[in-house]
Amino acid sequence: MRLRWRAGLLGGGVLLLTLGVTAVLLLAILDPPLREREGERLLRDLAIAERLLEGVLHDEFLSGAADEVARLLGARVTIVGPDGRVMADTGIPGGDVRGLETHADRPEVVQAREGARVLLERRSATAGVQSLYAAVEVGTPEAPRVLRLARAVPAFPAPGRRGLVLILATGAGGIFLVVLGSGLVTARVGRELDDLTGRVRRMSDGSLGAAEWEAPGSPELLEITGALRDLGEEVRGRLGEMRRQRDEMQTLIDSIAEGVLALTPDARVLRMNRAVVELLGMREPDSFAPIGTLVRHPALRDHLEESVLMPLHPREVVVGGRHLLVRARLLEEGGSVVTFLDVTDLRRMEQIRRDFVANASHELKTPLTAMRGFAETLLEGDPPGELKDQFLTSIRMNTVRLQNLVDDLLDLSRLESGAWKTLEEEVEVAPVAHEVWADLLNHHREREFDFAIVGDAVALADGQALHQIFRNLLDNAVRFTPDGGTIRVRIEPRGPELRVAVSDSGSGIPSSALPRIFERFYRVDPGRDRAAGGTGLGLAIVRHLVQSMGGEVSAESQLGEGTTIAFTLPRVEGE
Predict the structure, then answer these.
(1) Using the 8-state DSSP alphabet, how is residue 334 labeled?
(2) What SS3 class is residue 206?
(3) DSSP letter at 212?
(4) Domains in the chain, please, with CATH?
(5) φ, ψ for residue 54 (rounded to 5)?
(6) What pTM did the predictor assign?
(7) 44-73 tens-digit pLDDT
């Protein structure tokens, strides 16, 4: 007979014997506690019945109230009057209690009238079965009544108990012999099976190698051990391949700059890359978290939840100041894949282009209109000599203004497109400022200023760019500073950098306009700036040039007290 049959027969015999003995043992041991618990339950039900019957102990309501309480509690309810007459009893068919004998001598009734809460077991004279009784006095002193609950309990006679004890003793001896015999037979096989079970568990996560599958001592386990060894190698290989593919897929998804989000058919997160977390500004989600609990933007949340239900057109939303183009695609097996493309820079460039075209058109239109008007006037008639010279001078000034505007536009275009390359060289800053100032004085010989350059240093910068920076800053200072005013250039080394500040005592700039003066075409006073010949691009060019050389530019001003434009540049060490 093979091992599995022997083990099966032994196990079946042990189980059968154990079940029989257990049943008898439970009956013998649990009978008293069960009765005790049944009594406690009956007392609790008595308290409930007492509360339920408060206020309804009138004769006309007693029968109906007792029936309702009996139905709710599952117990026989009896109400006994002060003279021992039964006023209601749910154990009587039809509720006709007129033929019942007096209950004044019932033990529970007697004790209840003495003020006790009674629980006792006796045989019911009416029902003829062994029952548990619980009773308490209720009502008022003028009309006292006794409320009694009863439930039948199963009888378990003493001869049966003795027989069960004998059977229990015999069964215990049999169990001992069976367990001893089966233990001797299956001890070795049991150890091998336990070891085999542990190996199978390790095999499930791919951590068990082929060398760990040793041959068992029992011939019955050789075949299954070999099959499990082959299966373990296959599982290990497949798990490794799955992990590799999963890691490669996650690495690929995370490397995509575009946000990718996969949703289950019930709009839960199946997978997402880091770009989605960054674009939407949310925390790393738990596995299968509902997308509605992660996305705060109402319109985007609704769009994502709808994406798993129906095809949707691409939609652009603004989340945290970013313009996101959202595209969703339904999957055949359910759910959807949603992509997020950050088009913030594109929208910003579109706005910059629109503003640039509008501002440039406006700046070009003003001088062109003036030139056309003067030219048409000259062509249509023969104005006096002075007026003719005035018209020609105006045409020349507007032509120069157009030329400066076009030159500045070309410079700004090269800077913003990256076509202009910075040449790093050692440049003495003060001589460049002197050169620019001398050139400006040639164009403004009729004007006088208190000009000085304070300090000097050698910067690591592009000489041509630095020349253009001083040209724009000093030209602004000259145009907005009255005759006799003060213009200063201060050069101060500060660690690895140097700070250059161009100050004037001119009209100054309102504090509300300071944040915008480096924008293209922005003018604090458009009429005055155009009259002075400015293009509105000088400070924008200064900002680009300074930033391209690794510096920063800032402005300080008080209205009516002058302006200071400062910028930093890398400083040549040792200077």
Answers:
(1) S
(2) coil
(3) G
(4) 53-152 (3.30.450.20), 256-342 (3.30.450.20), 347-417 (1.10.287.130), 425-570 (3.30.565.10)
(5) -60, 130
(6) 0.40
(7) 888 888 888 776 666 666 778 888 888 888
